[in-house]
Amino acid sequence: MTEDKNPEVGAVVIGRNEGDRLKLCLSSVIAQIETVVYVDSGSHDGSPEYAATLGVEIVDLDMSIPFSAGRARNEGFNRLLQLGKKLEFVQFIDGDCELNGNWITYAKQFLTKQSSYAIVSGLLEERNPEKSIYNELCNIEWKRPEGDALSCGGIFLARITAISSVNGFSSEMIAGEEPELCFRLRQKNWKIYNSGINMALHDANMLYFKQWWKRSVRSGYAYTHRYFIHTYNNDEYLKKATIRIWFWTIILPFFAFLLSIMISPLFMITLLAYLVQLIRSYRHTLRFTRNKRTSFLYSFFNALGKWPQLIGQITFIYKRLKNQQKSIIEYK
């Protein structure tokens, strides 16, 4: 065991059929962390076997039980604790990401000094944003303002005692498990911090409109699921996000058409609110992208995304009423 391997830190990597991306991921992780658990969810590309050659602890998920990223991370986290190492922090990372070489040192020092923080995350960038519009959109999505945050994405360093205090991730959520975890942490007065430090490269490999649409459906499903779980917990951000989807897709067009029929066609002018919202979003995005084309694309797809998100919300409600089993919505 060497000092540069950060003996106080363990890592949980999750993946399925990531191929060369997993090789990059594990290489970047074991270069900084000695105790690593890889959780595989039914790969048939030799991922578990490759991970085993690196001396990584392997967890093969029982795929007869409904899969979720939250469940995979929980099983990896539990195995990490069972290894009996004296760990204080855990790095969660997906198999399609490559960890920055300086990240663990910085993140560990931050949590060591800032005892009120449960999680620290950093800058995540797309590996190939130029390959498609949808990769480019992801690259913008990853950009978060530096400072205290309400939530984080799936790549972050966390304090083990904090994760244990809320019993880890919600295994039943098919997406959005990280914001849901952060919400429960904040309820226990833990803080979340987003740094301006480069954390990792991500490879979305999202090349087609169909993939983007499914991902947006999954996002809407996750919003509604979290809203259902925390209806009485005063999650104002979540309430606004959920209501916003219904407003732009149903409420506004319904009343515009209804009033135009009942009173005057002039009420159709209220639909210009879409244009106003697009311009506002464009101006906001332009502030940090400094690119007119990129800002317009992001604003346009952000507006368009409300419709697949609505489908995701309706899907959750339908399955809840029918008491149907939830299943993951895959877009890759």
From TrEMBL:
Belongs to the glycosyltransferase 2 family. SUPFAM superfamilies: Nucleotide-diphospho-sugar transferases. Pfam families: Glycos_transf_2. The chain crosses the membrane at residues 245-276, 296-318. The keyword Transferase applies. Residues 12-120 form the Glycosyltransferase 2-like domain. Keywords: Glycosyltransferase, Membrane, Transferase, Transmembrane, Transmembrane helix. This is Glycosyltransferase involved in cell wall biosynthesis. GO terms for molecular function: glycosyltransferase activity.
